[in-house]
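User: Show me an example of a complex going from sequences to C-alpha cells.

Assistant: Sure. Here are the input components:
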Amino acid sequence: MAQNSAKGDDFINKEPLQEKKEAEEQTAAAESKQKEEDFGYGLYPERSSSKFKQGSIGESLFTFKHKCHIMLQVAMDTIYKDRHFSCEDCDGTVSGGFDAATSQIVLCQNNIHQQAHMNRVVTHELIHAFDHCRARVDWFSNFRHLACSEIRAANLSGDCSFVNEISRFNFGLKEHHQACVRGRALRSILAVRKVSREEAEQVVDEVFDSCFHDHAPFGRIPHNKKDAKFAYRDYENRDRYYANL
Amino acid sequence: MAGSHSNWRPPRSCDVYWCEFKHCKSLFNRFHEYYTYGRAPDCQQWKEDYYTCKEWEKTHSTHAKESLQESERKRVAEQRKFTPVWELRQTPPADWHVPLNQGGPHDS
C-alpha cells in the first residue's frame, strides 16, 4: 500500500570513511541528507539485497515466498508474472508497494496471509502500475501525483469497503467512503515520504476532488464482483460504444 | 464513425440498459451510493434509455437514436468532469518491459 519511488543511494555506500575531519564532516552531512529522504525504500529491505539466495532451500524453508506466489496466482488467475511482481519480506505492517524505478509490484509475503487480502493488495498496486503506465507520473518529486494515485488506489481497490472499515473498527456510514480514502491516502504518503502531516493533508485536499472522480479504467467505483463484472463488460464493449456515440 | 445512418446501432445492447437499471436500483447499490456520496442513486435515466433503445429497435427513428446518443454523451461528460492532475501518455514508459537484473544490488 505504501509506494516506492527512485532508488536511494543509501544501500550502495561501500567507500571507507576518511580520517580527515573535514572529509568526515562532509560525508556525515551527505549521509544524513540522504537518510532524510529514502523514498520509502527502508520498508522494503529486499529491494536491494535478499537474505536468501533466489531459489535456495533456505528461501523455500524460511520465507513465505511460495505461499505468496500461490496466492498471487489465484488473484491474477493467470500465469505468474515474473517481470512485474515480486514476493518479498517487508518491514512493519506494510502489505505491498509499487516500485516505479523498476515498474514492479512488491507483495509483502510476510504480511499477507489471506487470499482476500492478497486480492485487495494486488488491485491496489495494479492501480499504481496502471497510472504509471498510462500517465506521466512523477512519483519522486511531485507530491500531487503521488497523492492522486494513492487516492485512486484507496478508492478503487476495495480498501475502503464498508466491511473492511468495520473490521478496522471504523464505524461510519454517510460518505464514510470518502473519509476513509482521504485517511488511507494520507497514511500511505506519510509512510514513504518525510513530510509533515499538515503538508500531506494539504496536498491530499488539493487533489482530492479531481482524483476521487477519476475512475479509470473501471468507469465506476467497483464495490463488489457485480460492479467489476459490469465494468469489464463495458470494457469489452468499448469499440461499439465509442463508434456509436 | 461510419457516418452512414444504416450502420448505427445503440452504444450498448438494450438488455444492458435494463441490467444497469436493475443493478442501480438494487439494495446493495443504494447502500453503496449512500456510503460513498451520501445520497440516493439516480436510476431513472437507465430505464428511459432502455425504452428508447427498444423503440429504436422497433422503429429505427432518428429521435430515438439522438436521444440515446445524447444520454450517453452526457454520461461520458460526467465521467470526465475533473481536471487531470497529470499528463496522459501516448505510449508506456520506455523501461516498462526492460528485463530486471535479479542478481546483485540495484544501481541508481
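The lines above are the inputs; the final block is the predicted structure for all two components together. The longest helix of chain A spans residues 115-134.
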